[in-house]
Design a protein that fits this description.
The chain is mostly helical and 162 residues long. It folds into 2 domains: 1-59, no CATH class; 61-161, no CATH class. It is 48% helix and 10% strand. It is built from 6 helices and 4 strands, in the order αααββααββα. The protein has helices spanning 2-11, 24-33, 45-59, 97-110, 114-129, 147-159; strands at residues 66-71, 74-80, 132-133, 143-144. The strands form 2 sheets. The protein has a two-stranded antiparallel sheet with strand order 1-2. It has a two-stranded parallel sheet with strand order 3-4. Helix 2 packs parallel to helix 3, helix 4 (97-110) runs antiparallel to helix 5 (114-129) and helix 5 crosses helix 6. This is Isopropylmalate dehydrogenase-like domain-containing protein. Belongs to the isocitrate and isopropylmalate dehydrogenases family. GO terms for molecular function: 3-isopropylmalate dehydrogenase activity; metal ion binding. Residues 1-154 form the Isopropylmalate dehydrogenase-like domain. InterPro entries: IsoPropMal-DH-like_dom, Isopropylmalate_DH.
């Protein structure tokens, strides 16, 4: 109830932002049913972990989603939603996109450099558009690459921007 009261009080300062409250079980169901209805989900860490893992499968892989824990007193913590993946450590199989996009979130939300963040986001999108895929999101007709090559392709796309 404290969380709900605090969010509701803050929401009055932002009348152009729609606020709705959901129990986590309903939020989970709604996330699967119609993920586009959400722009941002604000929740505690435990529920956030559960919902972000669920949301990752909507994108096709847990390696695709960045996340942020932010507050008023600093830039926050920006990290992929996935863990360290010890089962594939050292095998060049990890999808680096969530980590790269977490850096973009740091630039945008933590450091206020939106143009730099947009360049990174565009480079990641361009790499996907060019058909490069790590094993977790690979499908026939795309180019299978490892973590290192994926990072190199994102860097190439970033360098090609003017």
């Amino acid at each position: 109830m404290l969380w709900r009261k605090r969010v509701t009080a803050i929401a009055s300062e932002f009348p152009d932002v729609e606020l709705s409250h959901m129990y986590v079980d309903n939020a989970s169901m709604q996330l699967v049913r119609n993920p586009k209805q959400f722009d941002t989900i604000v929740t505690n860490n435990s529920y956030g972990d559960i919902l972000s893992d669920e949301a990752s499968m909507i994108t096709g892989s847990i390696g695709m989603l960045p996340s942020a824990s932010v507050g008023e007193s600093g830039p926050g913590l920006f990290e992929p939603i996935h863990g360290s993946a010890p089962d594939i450590a050292g095998q060049d199989k990890a999808n680096p996109r969530a980590t790269i996009l977490s850096a973009a979130m740091l630039l945008k939300y933590g450091l206020g450099t939106e143009n730099a963040a947009k360049r990174i986001e565009t480079a990641v999108t361009e790499t996907l558009d060019n058909g490069f895929r790590t094993g977790d999101i690979y499908s026939p007709g795309t180019t299978l690459v490892g973590c290192k090559r994926m990072g190199e392709e994102v860097l190439k796309a970033l360098d090609s921007q003017k």
